[in-house]
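Bug report (template v2)

What were you trying to do?
Predict the complex of my protein with adenine.

What happened?
Run completed; filing so the output is reviewed.

Input:
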Amino acid sequence: MNFYVLTLFPEMIQNAVETSITGRAIKSGSISVDTVNIRDFSTRKTMRVDDYPYGGGAGMVMEPEPVFRAVKSVEGKIGGRPRVVYMTPQAQVLDQTKVESLAQEKNLIILCGHYEGIDERVLQETVTDYISIGDYVLTGGELGALVLIDAVSRFVPGVLSNEESSQFESLQDNLLEYPQYTRPEIWHEMSVPSVLLSGDHLRIEKWRHEESLKRTKERRPDLLKNSYRVVCVSYGEPGAAEKGRALTECITRYGEYMDYNRRKLQKTTFRMKPWNLLLLVMPGAAGEGSTSCREAETVVCYDPALSFAERFRGFYGSETPAVLVGSREELAEASSFLEARKFRIIARISPAVFDEDTLLRNTALDIREKTLHFH
Ligand code: ADE
């Protein structure tokens, strides 16, 4: 991924990005960070790029033309029109969803203002995204640009090693990270929670989820309103459950799974909440050649003779967002049934999403954004 930072202080950007993980990523070619000095595009002999504000008032305003020319110079170089992010306190504060969405871009222009800001007209003409890094005012956009580059780079393939991987991250589920411990087992008379020494993977996962919830409630209760629980329901050939798990794990680390081939489930009543997200993965999703029954003692064979309405007769929503994955016929049948049961379908997805890793990841990202908007 290539970042182009338009700034009056290029050295501030270059010095910072060349250290630590971003520095390593630049060296390995996973990212590049080019700086463009807006002053080089001044239209004046003095090389000034600011002037007094119309209407009076304190401070200076950056002129539109040098900024415009700086943007065009990058567009000319890469032969396209990338997203242009303007760093400003007058914007939505950057969050992880936005970071991940920007990480999908190949090129990104980041515009840093100074003084009292930039002439509004060039912003209107060039900027696609306005981003703040917090509700306070900095002397310029450079620190914001550095924060953005750092956060976005972590999602660019190759930037983090497997160990550093960003797949399971604080804030992915709008929950804060659980507490972490390392050796020694007892330090200053405080011991590591015993569950972490138990070796019981499921118990550890459960404990971590509870601690994440507790910590979020205490420290950032505002995040909880954007927190939802994904319930992945699959039925069909054994492969359907695996596909459902793959997609769910790209969306959340705390998914719940239900196999609706199980007769017991088909007979019970299940009511999903408004803060759930239903991910329904239907038979076609598993593709060809996956019709055999795996692990006969745990997996109940798929009975294709059952209609959707029979299989899901006890299944209810309450303004619950739902994403359906299946063939066109399956989608149609499931949609009308689920809509009548008070689910709100926010996306219908073809089984082709499972064909390619990037497609799967982008689909997951899209689902997360849609779910946040829905809530
Ligand atoms: N420029 C000045 N203050 C800023 C902030 N809070 N976020 C991003 N850019 C800025």
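What did the reviewer find?
Residues 87-89, 132-134, 136-138, 141, 144 surround adenine (CB under 6 Å). Confidence is low (pLDDT under 50) at residues 289-297.
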